[in-house]
What we know:
The complex is a heterodimer. Chain A is an all-beta fold. Chain A has strands at about 5, 10-15, 20-25, 30-35, 45-50, 50-55, 60-65, 70-75, 85-90, 100, 105-110. In chain A, the strands form two sheets. In chain A, strands 2, 4, 5, 9, 10 and 11 form a six-stranded mixed β-sheet that branches. A five-stranded antiparallel β-sheet of chain A has the order 1-3-8-7-6, with no helix packed on it. Chain B has strands at about 5, 10-15, 20-25, 30-35, 45-50, 55, 65-70, 75-80, 90-95, 100, 105-110. By secondary structure, chain B is mainly beta. Chain B is globular. In chain B, the strands form two sheets. In chain B, strands 2, 4, 5, 6, 9, 10 and 11 form a seven-stranded mixed β-sheet that branches. Classes of the chains: A mainly beta, B mainly beta. The interface of A and B includes residues 42, 43, 95 and 102 of A.
Amino acid sequence: GIQVEQSPPDLILQEGANSTLRCNFSDSVNNLQWFHQNPWGQLINLFYIPSGTKQNGRLSATTVATERYSLLYISSSQTTDSGVYFCAVEWSGSARQLTFGSGTQLTVLP
Amino acid sequence: EAGVAQSPRYKIIEKRQSVAFWCNPISGHATLYWYQQILGQGPKLLIQFQNNGVVDDSQLPKDRFSAERLKGVDSTLKIQPAKLEDSAVYLCASTPVDTQYFGPGTRLTVL
């Protein structure tokens, strides 16, 4: 199966700082999603981004499928951005199944 | 549009007891998934349904876990008998085509 690695595993920021989260994957993918898991455990869709760049407010994401990585950018971070950020990929050899990375735990301090 | 609904939100049971979780996907979503998320890890797929048929249950511990999706809508995941290592959050997700949408999960504690 496919391997998904996220870095860094933990990140602590002051409010207002910018950050970049990385997701590396070991094989070709049809689908890549970024999720935010809030402190209550809810997984919230951020981006569906198998390739290219997308932006949504202070968040943006870029996937370079040929080089097998994706980046999530958070600008002007707020305390409500705290939580775990997961990258999940749908391997080309799977039937629309997501394989998750182990996540990046983000803590934004006031 | 209503999201994916799950119940109960929390459940505490003794080992060797049985437990059942319920999921109602987003209306019109043909594909439904159950995931297990152990503390500190990413969710792991247990079973995938397309309408009321099983697409993949290769990761489901079938000696104790079972799942069904009657009429291609709601789904139930059951554990019987539960073990200590089954303590986790059980997440249900659905998708119309590509993007998966997750419910709030059921947090199971096995004592």
